[in-house]
Fold:
Amino acid sequence: MESRQVFPVPQAFGSRAHITAERYEALYRESVQDPEGFWSRQAKELLSWKEPWSKVLTWDFKGPTIRWFEGGKINVSENCLDRHLEHRGSKPAIIWEGNEPGETRTVSYRELHEQVCATAALLRSLGVRKGDRVAIYLPMIPEAAVAMLACARIGAIHTVVFAGFSAEALRDRINDCGCAVLFTANEGLRGPKAIPLKETADEALAECPSIRHVLVVRRTAATVAMTPGRDLWYDEALAALGGAGDSRPESVDAEDPLFILYTSGSTGKPKGVLHTTGGYLLQVTMTHRYVFDLREEDVYCCAADVGWVTGHSYVVYGPLSNGATTVMFESVPTYPDAGRYWEMVERHRISIFYTAPTAIRALAKEGDEFVTRHDRSSLRLLGTVGEPINPDAWLWYHHVVGEARCPIVDTWWQTETGGVLISPLPGATPTKPGSATKPLFGVQPVLVDDEGREISGNGVRGRLCIKFPWPGMMRTVYGDHERFRQTYFSMYPGLYFTGDGCRRDEDGYYWITGRVDDVLNVAGHRLGTAELESAIVRSGLVAEAAVVGIPHEIKGQGIGAFCVLRGDVAADASTTKGIVQAVREVISPIAAPDSIWFVSGLPKTRSGKVMRRILRKVGEGEYDSVGDVTTLADPSVVSEIIQAVRASRA
Ligand code: WT7
Structure:
């Protein structure tokens, strides 16, 4: 499926860009030869510090220990707000596009600063202190960014939970890190649907002893139950404080935590990825500026939700730290129709637009007319993130959306990496559809074979690892440092293992081929097979389940579940429904299986290990190449499995 086309750097970018090809080469070389020198200079240039650091970097990938800018004092909210007030006070910080087309709100840097200060004082008045955890379960409204920045201002650690997650998922996250306060809204709106956020939160909070207060943002006119003493309307609580209270920015150590964000792995429950302050802010500030070749007059829009890391780094922290105008989008790309993004581009004169391959594929399917009927002359750069982008989708994005004018930055990174690590720089890197191209400054990728030996040279493939720390990398799994070590550093000693497979072509370009572990990427959402299987079993209908990724035209990967039913359960449509319902309730509607197959047994080795390789092949429709089945305890299950999948697709 390789596209051999190469797209040169457009003239308009080459000359004006922050980073040209020559500059990229020189800076990259420096960043690898003298990482401490490179990063200290960036840290001084791009951020404002309250006190300088005493040591740039301490690291070992065995422990593992990673510390950047130790001893340095910095406040993220000051960097995102206060330092812009003098020159950018009236510049729009956030342009909010609500669920209904044309429902917009513009918040200037001055206004955002005021709201964050008021909210910081409110949190302090509720007893929240530096290091305390605060959960945020909000729709895509400016208050979500305000809540995050208010936490940052007082040194509290936020954990944003995507508003599409279930009560159980919310409960588990709150309990894992012991949050003291929860931000939510009475209701959320997503396309034609109203989401009962407060009701779901109440269900979760029945089992969250650490929560002392709930701040409820009034997003709609919906009335909701309020628990006296615990729940406060956010607007009323702010009014009651009347601008009083302590909103001074806390002096935060570079290595103090900024946030925890839960993400799925190949085993167990989602883990709390912990990011710290100085290094993270530097990573997102620098990458946002260079990858998007940011200019003062840009109107930048990342269509991601703040419930994911993309929303943290590239809706809120990166853009605001750079003093940019960031567009926050509450709705979905197909509401009220497939032209919504481009209508929004036209309305706000968006110049940089960043979204996910799954959205691009879904929109491309609806036809060009939804795009072309809107004026996109303001666009100058397009970005994509979340999963490998197939060349067809890339070319459609480039030609139809970008009128062949706009370069595309295909940005590879992860929740764990904090910011983009591999991506073109629009003024420096010729692009190839489907390739994330080259490492950014300070990033030292290596490919390894199954035994962990480094594969050198070009025209090779292997597993993607990184051999040197970068400032924005996660520091630990909250409350479980051993899991951090185990997950990322034990597979290939001395290296950070990404979980991705990757090819490096003849030109040294990186092509991410997808996860090589038991993690699925469904419409850009990361889901672990273990967590899906346990949700399926929780339905009470299934004795044992095995989940694999299956090809899906729009989502990239869909979810296929092989289920062994419990003795008395009928293999019928109502059972299928029950299983889907259970997954929606335990995790989220985004985790609902696309295909469920009833089988009498799973292909297991004699030691009882499920051979997913076989299930994956069958799920992909490769019935004749399932490989060696002789090591199975009962090879006959394979033909039954093939039969079940075939029949469902006939
Ligand atoms: C996984 C990380 C990074 C924010 C959104 C996802 C896949 C991400 C790309 C890309 C190919 C990509 C990888 C990675 N991925 N971006 N440009 N090309 N694959 O964050 O949920 O932590 O998922 O997403 O497989 O490991 P995440």
Observations:
- The pocket of WT7 is lined by residues 263, 309-310, 385-388, 410-415, 436, 498-500, 512, 514-515, 521, 526 (CB under 6 Å).
- The first strand starts at residue 55 and ends at 60.
